[in-house]
Specification:
The complex is a heterodimer. By secondary structure, chain A is α+β, with helices and mostly antiparallel strands. In chain A, about 15% of the residues lie in helices and about 20% in strands. Chain A folds into two domains: about 35 residues; about 130 residues, Methylamine/Aralkylamine dehydrogenase light chain (Electron Transport Ethylamine Dehydrogenase, Sandwich), CATH 2.60.30. The two termini of chain A are about 35 Å apart. In chain B, a hairpin with a 4-residue loop joins strand 12 and strand 13. The longest helix of chain B has 14 residues. Classes of the chains: A alpha+beta, B mainly beta. Chains A and B meet through helix 1 and helix 2 of A and strand 5, strand 11, helix 2, helix 3 and strand 24 of B.
């Protein structure tokens, strides 16, 4: 056995030990093949009875250039979202539910559109002023940064500049195309 | 035989005294806190308000809870006599006039004793527990403001007034430093430290050099406090110790959590994460906690072959890795029953490990309690509320001199 073979052997044993005990092999296999399946895992909701939106009827944008189901956490624009999807709450991926007010201040992320493989700048605005919608909770953190980089952070409650800070739900508004993954054409982020 | 038993039963019940009338309007009081007690923040999703629930970890007995408004923060007096909750409410539920204030609770009856008004609309509304802290001198309470300009409010708990608001442009959150100071994390990877005098007047402020590179490997803001030091964990799994005993923070050499997996790290690291991270990474909300007496750091860890490595800095942990921070060595691994998003450790010599977890097979969520030394799962609580955002046991100082 070469040292690489031994590593592979050790890793597979560890994976096998862990997964068989937890009955996770199928899910793990899917993850190994496609890491993007993350938000579908129940682990995203650990310690919290977060509503997953799995029973919410799907919808589409009707635009082939904007593919996917905006009521699903794996919709491409939601790569950095953290909250209830307004599209499940009487609003849409880019508009608030009736009577809620969109916060003018927010954070900006970039997501890749699978239709044209371009990175788009996404404004993650919160809709505010009513109680939480409590449907379709979605938390994805691609290229998200800690609170000391607030313009790149989704932990902050972004109902700022609105009459009330009561949080209703979140939207993901396309504001333009980005030069690179970080939205500025600079270094790529791998977190 | 059956008739005889029935007769006996009737005689016995006739012999019992009638129940005496009970006193109306009685409320329980709570005994002096014990080391295995913890508060946890139950975050109610429908209104984004919180409650702090106090439980006894030895039998998951529900002791008390505090109503806490939007995005609350909690601080506990070192002698455990009082608890302070910063909260935000609106006159008409989700609308109307906004009120920001600190509620003072006595720890015998957990009824609100006092309210200290804060300047309207400043308090940062976010999940981080680092938004409020008592200073080393527990007469003063510091509160982080974000609107989105940042500032620090100082409250005098003795006179029960808001003293001042200091602008801190570009710097965020609060880490108690020295006798009467707070340090904050700034966007360039440095810390700003504010120092107050014995009257709570700002005595000086100092911005240091960057001690980490937020572009290469950001540190998580939920730091563990062990003794007089803060321990920050980075996205990729490095530990940044910050000695906060003196007037200004002293930055120690960073060290790696994943050293023990170095034998597996080589090509697997490259294969799975593009050379950016080892096969296991820290993740979660309250992902790190410390035990001062044992000099131990507890970190929620997950394998990147589960999480995919991208955007997984809040990914729940499958294991809790326990490190000796003096020797910078991993002491043991606690395998969780499922996965956990937040953890904390009780401050005593026989510590409990509290975990907000979910079992993967049943998808059942629970507040799980483990023996922090043996790693043995002890007990759990299912009906904890909506979502556990973190744990806060009473401080070690409250039990100094006590033997458990």
């Amino acid at each position: 056995m070469t040292s690489i073979d031994r590593w592979v052997d050790r890793l597979s044993r560890r994976v096998a030990e862990r997964t068989s005990r937890r009955g996770l092999l199928g899910r793990l296999g899917k993850l190994l093949l496609g890491a993007a399946a993350l938000p579908l895992l129940p682990v995203a909701r650990a310690g919290a009875a977060f509503p997953s939106g799995r029973d919410v009827p799907p919808t589409t944008t009707g635009n082939p250039g904007d593919p996917g189901n905006p009521r699903s956490c794996d919709y491409w624009r939601y790569c950095g979202i953290d909250g209830f999807l307004c599209s499940c709450c009487g609003g849409s991926a880019s508009s608030c539910p009736p009577g809620a007010v969109m916060s003018p201040i927010t954070w900006i992320g970039t997501c890749e559109n699978p239709a044209d493989r371009k990175h788009y700048i996404i404004s993650y605005n919160d809709c505010c002023g009513k109680q939480g919608c409590n449907r379709c909770f979605c938390n994805r953190n691609e290229r998200e940064e800690p609170e000391y980089r607030p313009q790149k952070n989704n932990e902050i409650h972004w109902c700022l500049g609105t009459p009330s800070t009561a949080y209703t739900c979140s939207v993901a508004v396309v504001v333009g195309t980005a030069l690179g993954e970080d939205g500025a054409g600079g270094a790529q982020r791998n977190w | 035989m059956r008739v005889a038993a029935t007769l006996l039963c009737l005689v016995a019940s006739a012999a019992q005294a009638e129940l005496a009338p009970e006193t109306l309007g009685r409320s329980e009081r709570v005994a002096r806190p014990e080391p295995h007690w913890t508060f946890y923040l139950d975050f109610q999703l429908a209104n984004f308000q919180g409650r702090y629930v106090l439980i006894d970890g030895d039998d998951v007995e529900y002791l008390a809870h505090l109503s806490a408004g939007q995005f609350p923060s909690l601080a506990i007096a070192p002698d455990a006599s009082e608890v302070y909750v910063a909260e935000t409410t609106y006159a008409y539920g989700s609308r109307g006039e906004r009120h920001d204030f600190v509620t003072v609770y006595d720890t015998t009856d957990y009824a609100a004793q006092d309210h200290i008004t804060l300047p309207t609309g400043r308090r940062a509304l976010m999940a981080s527990r680092q938004r409020m802290t008592l200073l080393g001198d527990p007469r003063f309470l510091a509160i982080y403001n974000y609107r989105p300009a940042t500032s620090v409010s100082l409250v005098d708990l003795k006179s029960r007034v808001h003293l001042s608001e200091t602008p801190v442009p570009g710097c965020h959150l609060l880490y108690a430093t020295g006798p009467r100071g707070v340090s904050m994390l700034c966007g360039d990877g440095s810390m700003l430290t504010l120092r107050f005098d014995e009257h709570g007047v700002l005595a000086g402020q100092e911005r240091g050099e960057p001690f980490f590179d937020p572009d290469a490997d950001p540190i998580k803001t939920n730091a563990a406090r062990i003794g007089q030091s803060w321990y920050f964990v980075s996205y990729a799994g490095d530990v940044y110790p910050v000695d906060a005993a003196g007037e200004r923070p002293v930055f120690g050499e960073p060290w790696a959590l994943v050293d023990h997996d170095v034998e597996e790290a080589g090509w697997i690291r490259a294969l799975l994460s593009g050379g950016k991270a080892g096969p296991w990474k820290p993740g979660g909300m309250q992902l790190a906690a410390g035990h001062t007496g044992r000099k131990e750091l507890y970190v929620l860890m997950h394998p990147t072959f589960w999480s995919g490595g991208l955007g997984d800095h809040d990914f729940p942990g499958a294991e809790v890795w326990v490190f000796d921070v003096a020797r910078r060595e991993r002491l043991r691994v606690i395998e969780l029953r499922g996965v956990g998003t937040s953890l904390n450790v009780s401050p005593d010599a026989e510590p409990l490990l509290f975990v907000a977890g979910v079992e993967l097979d049943t998808e059942e969520q629970g507040l799980e309690i483990y023996d922090a030394q043996s790693g043995e799962f002890l007990r759990e609580m299912h009906e904890y509320g909506d979502a556990i955002l973190g744990f806060r046991p009473f401080p070690a100082a409250a039990f100094a001199g006590e033997q458990r």
